């Protein structure tokens, strides 16, 4: 029996590359052991069959950012129904255009960002990328978010103007935002720095009761549409490499 060695060393021997390049190949999912993809360079192998995908490319190991369509009633972080539990290989949107191969490491160490209220649905972000984390935390209040809000009731006189200019929330005046009717019972908000409960409170101030809230966009990144329509609730897609909020 052959003495066990680290998988990265075996791949370096097969591929005639450096140990660092071998680790990149393994972490990017190009290496299989006995027919199963392995992403752990330190795994020790002896007589196992090690194969490298013929399409393998030596490239940097990029952190992943996943975009989830959170359903209403799902907890954004903590709670009995956390949104993170929805993210798995099985719930990957079939119309995802990012052309990123799902890997096991993409589901590890994901940080929830741009959270939504439990009752709201729509775009929510989970990322391993420190640049994305900083962007959606430190610069969050400067990024415009787009929502559609289904409402009931009769809007007060000049209510649409008041929604866009001049309301207060939790004792503070609100900055201007963009508000328009999408239908007789649906409003569109393009707004920055919205706080939990703010959209419901704004609508209540002009005589409207909110029935549902859905976030469509964060900055330049939208929920996503494919040939069959918008990405369904409970499914996720990758943020393509190079795209930014």
TrEMBL record:
One of its GO terms (molecular function) is RNA binding. It catalyses: uridine(2604) in 23S rRNA = pseudouridine(2604) in 23S rRNA; uridine(35) in tRNA(Tyr) = pseudouridine(35) in tRNA(Tyr). Keywords: Isomerase, RNA-binding. Its EC number is 5.4.99.21. Pfam families: PseudoU_synth_2, S4. Residues 5-63 form the RNA-binding S4 domain. It is an enzyme of class 5 (isomerase). GO terms for biological process: enzyme-directed rRNA pseudouridine synthesis. SMART domains: S4 (SM00363). PROSITE patterns: S4 (PS50889). This is Dual-specificity RNA pseudouridine synthase RluF. It comes from Pseudomarimonas arenosa. The lineage of its organism: Bacteria, Pseudomonadati, Pseudomonadota, Gammaproteobacteria, Lysobacterales.
């Amino acid at each position: 029996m052959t003495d066990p060695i680290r998988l990265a060393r075996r791949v370096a021997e097969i591929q005639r590359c450096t140990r660092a390049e071998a680790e990149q190949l393994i972490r990017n999912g190009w290496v299989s052991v006995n027919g199963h993809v392995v992403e752990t360079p330190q795994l020790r192998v002896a007589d196992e069959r090690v194969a490298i995908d013929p399409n393998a490319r030596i490239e940097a190991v990029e952190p992943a950012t996943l975009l989830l369509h959170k359903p209403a009633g799902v907890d954004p972080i903590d709670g009995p129904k956390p949104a993170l539990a929805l993210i798995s290989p099985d719930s990957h949107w079939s119309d995802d255009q990012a052309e990123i191969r799902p890997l096991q490491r993409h589901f590890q160490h994901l940080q929830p960002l741009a959270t939504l209220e439990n009752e709201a649905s729509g775009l929510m972000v989970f990322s391993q990328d420190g640049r994305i984390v900083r962007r959606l935390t430190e610069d969050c209040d400067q990024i415009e978010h787009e929502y559609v809000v289904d409402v009931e009731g009769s809007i007060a006189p000049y209510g649409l103007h008041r929604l866009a200019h001049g309301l207060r929330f939790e004792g503070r005046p609100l900055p201007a935002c963009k508000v328009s009717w999408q239908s007789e019972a649906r409003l569109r908000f393009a707004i920055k720095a919205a706080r939990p409960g703010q959209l419901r409170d704004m609508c209540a101030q002009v005589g409207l009761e909110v029935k549902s809230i859905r976030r469509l966009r964060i900055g330049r990144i939208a929920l996503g549409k494919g040939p069959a329509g918008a990405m369904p609730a409970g499914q996720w897609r990758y943020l393509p490499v190079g795209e930014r909020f």
